[in-house]
Amino acid sequence: MNKKTLTMVVNGKTVEKMVEPGDTLLDVLREELGLKGVKKGCGKGECGACTIIMNGKAVNSCIVPAMQAVGAEIQTIEGLSNGNGLHPLQQTFIDCGAIQCGFCTPGMIMSSKALLDKNLKPTKEEIKQALAGNVCRCTGFVKIEEAVEKAAEILKNGK
Amino acid sequence: MKNYSVVGKRLPRYDGTQKAVGAPCFTSDVSLPGMLYAKVLRSPYPHARIVNIDTTKAEQLPGVAAVICHKNTTSKLFNTSATIVFTLPPLVPVKDQRIFDDVVRYVGDEVAAVAAETEEIAQEALKLIEVEYEQLPSVFDPKEANKEEAPDLQGPREHGKNLPGEKIHLELGDIQKGFEDADYIFEHEFKLPVQKQCQMETMAAVATIDADGKITVYSSTQTVHPSRAILADLFDVPYSKVRVLSPPFIGGGFGVRIGLSAKAEPIAIALAQKAKRPVKVVYDREEDFTSSDTRHSGYVYLKTGVKKDGTFTARMMKAVLNAGAYCSFSTETHGVLGCMGLSLYSCPNQYYDGIAVYTNTTPSGAMRGFGSPQASTAIEAQLDIIAEELGIDRREISKKNMMKVGGEWVLPYQCQSIALEECIDQGAAAIGWDKKGTFDNSGSVKRGIGMACGTHVSNAWPFCGDYSNAYVNIQQDGSVQIAVGSPEMGTGVQTTLSQMVSETLGVTMDKIEVTIADTESSPFEIGAHASRTCYVVGMAVTQAAAQVKKEALEFAAKLLAERESCIYCAQDVQDLDIVDNMIVSKSNPNKKISLREVTIQAQFKGEQFIGVAKVVPQNAPPWLAHFADVSVDTETGKVTVNKLVAAHDVGRAINPTIVEGQIEGGLAQGYGYALTEEILYDENGRQLNTGFHKYMLPTAVDLPELQAIIVESDEPTHPFNVKGVGETGLIATAAAIMNAVYDAIGVRFFEIPMTEEKIYMALQESLKSCE
């Protein structure tokens, strides 16, 4: 196979990897970079467990070809608490009981972060829309929506 | 009820931080040195004989380390479900599966597997396996499969045509007399769909075998000890030479891995034995749909005799469930359906016949509710019809007939607490029951309210054997270790069990560590199913903690007597208690010594405080009332659920946030069961809904406001009055929505899910009949 060089910024650090044409961004993040917080729930962009933030937008990394990430700025769940304690979203997810099995949690938090990065006063409907691509089979979403509202509140007051 | 300082508090989850930071804590995250990746070849036919299979070309592909099929693996029979381990005599566990067989019985059945350096190579190798099939006749409906002319899917069966196990028959009183005493008799049949667990982490296992042949399996199982037993028996290894563990969490379960994670573990082990390297098996989502157990679909028939005032005189129920291609839990599910379905209400004359029948579809096994959603959907939808026909308030007919403490029922234990009436009242208030019938439904969107009740279990007995062991000890610095075989699949067991131990022992939560789901660090434990962990394992850790506390206080009393011989003597142990890690005198609070100091002193005398508990539980059904407020667009058939309320008698909520989370999650699954979720098969036995989108899994956008109401009752069989809550959230949801839809549009449904199309067609039909 023709391997190509992929250079991107992941959680603030520039990384360079040789990737195959068929590799997805999820493969590279999870298997090459060991970022196991990026989960694989379906491989078809249907569940959102692999959600990361790429150039400011929440995307399903399982359906992004790796080479599309050339030069991109990527944030994964691992970048959220880098030595600075928990991100408000991580804390409110814990406090509100928004975490059960935890498999959807990283993707759910990244989708929420992409929302709050742009909008610190989201309505309930905007939160639901932001999470529309993230499946959670445990919670019924009630406590997740509450956690996003609370985190928005904290981030708003902190700014 | 007694007040506690730790039990009953909304404490944050023990496992919250690890999960919030995305720690690699699932089987699919496990990576071992030299590990190979496996892929499985699956049958494209619903029923066929493998005439020939040639794996030569696959074996020759560079990067392939091992290829296995029925020709080079054990032909020993087993059952992937834990029922094989805890079926109680005189019943005999049904063993009808092989890792690979020369007959395939559903689309997705295992044919061969490859282990290779990468997943891509393994996938490529599957294409090189040459298989010649001879197709056999197939059958997909359980009623058809039960007819004499149907093909035998597992050979002639002892208990009837295509029956994996026994028929279940229950009787109370005299059913004929009951119908004679009735003023009215109602007779209906309901059709229930195939629902899928859709747990977020697919089936996964990583097997490694050391030089002595000892097998270690990281597994997504809900039941490490029973899974070890299944695997050790299958591979002919002593139980002590197999270790099954979670790493340490599971990405959801909902029943699908009570026992093995489908065949992930045996395939990983067989490949690891052949390749002599660790092997990882992770099902993709489509495989998880086609080749892991589903909820039982089928038919529930009800014939109910009532007096004019709504009192039941006779209740007859018959269930025909689809077992799918292999038995799995199809010797138990129809038992729970019958027993718990009948036991919701009192009635002197009861009759039940239940069967599960083999078909050429994906095996049915355990899914949250395990028979009770099927029962409740039918019973509570019919009761809505009865109440309306008799002109009785829907709440009152449930209250009039509901089970009473000590009431007669088909179960071999007593009902000792029931707060169903409070559940009905509180739930009705929360949904705004008084608005029922007052909505302005003159437009095309019509609104309605409905309710339904249900019950379930707090452990698996008497349907299977049920027991737990637990180990609690105080470490040499006064901190505490709990070790149990229970897994953490989202239900918060570490938090809840710690709260019970903290309350019992007087040690603060921050000093308690819980080791879970590892056969090598815990005594035998049946595992997480039947809403049992908080109830049974909770009893076990509480008992073990009490034993530890007794030992620590006795030692402390001696120590204090030695130190302060004039003013304290060893007999004063009754005067001591442990509060916030300090041993204190109840009569003189100034007299205290830290638990840490006591354990350090104990160490010098060669003593550790250790508690081991063994619990064989009875049972305590939880009770629940669900309410739905819906709007139906009569032009499209679309149902919008405005609000769902669930009021549950949970005994006591050890951690109310976790309990609400269980109920809310169950409501969401019940919403799907009622309205969208279903696996359909085409005429060739292929699943039509093999991904989340095609299956119409509800998301945040679909789900309405959910309100969980916790109702507590003084359940005497548990030290903290706990009843099971893991499964209850979806049991009565579908029936509540069915009844609300009827209230809105005046059309009854006798099958779910009530999809837009079905509602639209039914409305067209009812318009025609009005014309």
In short:
Chain A is of the alpha+beta class.
Structure description:
The complex is a heterodimer of chains A (159) and B (771). Chain A has helices spanning 25-32, 88-95, 105-118, 124-130, 142-158; strands at 4-10, 13-19, 51-54, 57-60, 73-75. Chain A folds into 2 domains: 4-79, Beta-grasp domain (Ubiquitin-like (UB roll)); 88-158, DNA polymerase, domain 1 (Orthogonal Bundle), CATH 1.10.150.120. Chain A is of the alpha+beta class. Helix content of chain A is 34%, strand content 16%. In chain A, helix 2 (88-95) crosses helix 5 (142-158) and helix 3 packs across helix 5 (142-158). The mean pLDDT of chain A is 96. A 5-stranded mixed sheet of chain A has the order 2-1-5-3-4, sandwiched between helices. Chain B has 3 domains: 31-136 and 200-252 and 257-291, Alpha-Beta Complex (Aldehyde Oxidoreductase, domain 3), CATH 3.90.1170; 298-461 and 619-770, Aldehyde oxidase/xanthine dehydrogenase, molybdopterin binding domain (Aldehyde Oxidoreductase, domain 4, 2-Layer Sandwich); 467-615, Aldehyde oxidase/xanthine dehydrogenase, molybdopterin binding domain (Aldehyde Oxidoreductase, domain 4, 2-Layer Sandwich), CATH 3.30.365.10. Chain B has 20 helices and 26 strands. In chain B, the strands form 6 sheets. Chain B has a 7-stranded mixed sheet. Chain B has a 5-stranded mixed sheet with strand order 7-15-14-13-8, with helices on both faces. In chain B, helix 11 packs parallel to helix 19, helix 15 (533-563) packs across helix 16 (595-604) and helix 17 (656-675) crosses helix 19. At the A-B interface, helix 2, helix 3, helix 4 and helix 5 of A face helix 1 and helix 17 of B.
